[in-house]
Write a structure and sequence with these properties.
The complex is a heterodimer of chains A (149) and B (259). With 149 residues, chain A is mainly beta. Chain A contains one helix and nine strands. The longest helix of chain A has 20 residues. Chain A is flat, with a radius of gyration of 21 Å. Chain A starts with 8 loop residues before the first helix and ends in an 11-residue tail after the last strand. In chain A, 16% of the residues are buried. By secondary structure, chain B is of the alpha/beta class. Chain B contains eight helices and twelve strands. In chain B, the strands form two sheets. Chain B has a ten-stranded mixed beta sheet with strand order 1-2-4-7-8-3-9-12-10-11, with helices on both faces. Chain B has a two-stranded antiparallel sheet with strand order 5-6. In chain B, α1 crosses α5 and α2 runs parallel beside α4. Classes of the chains: A mainly beta (149), B alpha/beta (259). Chains A and B meet through β3 of A and α7 and α8 of B.
Chain lengths: 149, 259
């Protein structure tokens, strides 16, 4: 007798929804990148500017984090992504611009970065200088050494 | 289009320059601040405009420009504007322009400058340096398109930009100035490539102070450095996208042929 739990209609819809999301992210993402402002007013979040470069051994991510203290930065990394959360040392207010005619306040930078190649997060290093966070992530190199004859 | 009096319209191919006030200066210096590496040009030139309280005297208009209007202090403004005071004219774009527009705009700036008998067009931009984080005070390098421009740079002891490739709107500006025999000086401050760099802009202003014989204080610019970096994120992001399309990375590459 099968012990498999019967799925509800909601589970099936959820699976379909996730599958569609994954499809769009994997295949349509690069063709139709989502264009969104770099801030979320209700949650008072700003998205920082980021830059990824690479050497033979490392991925180097730099993130512009003005108005942030080193001790407040939280960085989490897996093999495939880095997540940064950095509260500002004081609330930043933007007056009268575009949708902010009533003014808007921001208090945290948040950003999740998908990495172009797997890394070893345990050997990652980070430093913070002049309001710029630099994260060095050693690439995970798998494979066999091929002898050169 | 703007709530000001129109004095004169000058058409240069697909670009129209609209002058809304009389431009008084004789043999003026024309400084150009368009979005590029580190947004050095727009940050430096807008600080100069604010500090010297330069007057808005016109704008550039074209069907090649994106359908954008900037509203400032409840007043609609075109995106590429001209400011002037005494012998100094500044051209600033507040938004990124399409590639096809920058070809025409650089040509129009050059021809318009010639009509105003400009002594120099000064392009203000950055050169991306990979170790910018280790640099406390960025250097500013310069090169001139004519003998007069070179002499001016030597006289002011501006460090020469000896070798390299320039890609983008400032390259076009130099090319057009060479074609039209309009003296051009290009200033390149060591800068972050993908982040707004008010520090690099401040270094450039110090050089422009000696070039233009003005005294624009950079202390207030450096004090609001973090605020500028927050507010300019989206312009920087769009500029980065354009720099990628223009293959700006060539500026970082080693030249293969030396002649």
């Amino acid at each position: 007798m099968s012990t498999r739990k019967k799925r509800s209609i909601f589970d099936i819809f959820e699976e379909i929804r996730e599958e569609i999301n994954r499809f769009f992210e994997e295949f349509m993402g690069p063709i139709f990148p989502v264009e969104a402002p770099m801030q979320n007013v209700p949650s008072k979040e700003l998205q920082p500017l980021t830059h990824i470069s690479e050497t033979e051994e490392n991925l180097i991510i730099t993130i512009d984090l003005p108005c942030v203290r080193k001790e407040d930065i939280k960085v989490n990394a897996t093999e495939n992504m880095v997540r940064v959360e950095a509260p500002m040392r004081e609330c930043v207010r933007i007056d009268f611009y575009g949708p902010f005619q009533r003014g808007a306040e921001f208090e945290v930078f948040k950003k999740t970065i998908k990495l172009p190649t797997p890394v070893d997060p345990k050997r990652a290093k980070a430093r913070f200088k002049s309001g710029i966070l630099e994260i060095i992530l050693p690439k995970k190199i798998a494979g066999f050494r091929i002898p050169v004859e | 289009m703007v709530l000001v009096r129109l004095l004169e319209k000058r058409k240069f191919n697909e670009i129209t320059v609209v002058e809304t006030a009389k431009i008084e200066g004789e043999k003026p210096f024309i400084t150009v601040g368009l979005p590029d590496v580190g947004l050095v040009g727009p940050i430096a030139t807008s600080h100069i405009v604010q500090t010297l309280d330069m007057k808005e005297v016109g704008y550039f208009e074209s069907d090649l420009f994106p359908p954008i209007i900037v509203v400032h202090k409840n007043e609609p403004k075109p995106q590429v504007r001209i400011f002037a005071k005494d012998n100094l004219i500044t051209i600033i774009s507040e938004t990124i322009l399409p590639v096809q527009a920058i070809y025409q705009l650089s040509k129009a700036i050059t021809l318009w400058a010639k009509q105003h008998n400009a002594s120099f067009i000064v392009g203000v931009t950055g050169i991306a340096v990979p170790n910018r984080l280790e640099i406390e005070k960025p250097n500013v390098y310069g090169f001139g398109s004519s003998i007069e421009a070179k002499k001016e740079l030597e006289k002011l002891k501006i460090q020469p930009f000896e070798e390299g490739i320039l890609v983008g709107v400032y390259a076009l500006l130099v090319r057009n100035c060479m074609d039209e025999q309009q003296p051009n000086i290009t200033l390149l401050a060591e800068s972050h490539v993908q982040f707004p760099d008010p520090g690099a802009a401040a270094s450039t202003i110090e050089v422009l102070n000696s070039l233009f014989g003005v005294n624009v204080d950079v202390k207030s610019l450096l004090e609001k450095e973090e605020e500028i970096r927050i507010k300019a994120r989206e312009l920087m992001r769009r500029t980065s996208e354009q720099m990628k399309a223009l293959r700006k990375v060539q500026e970082q590459e080693l030249r293969g042929i030396y002649v």
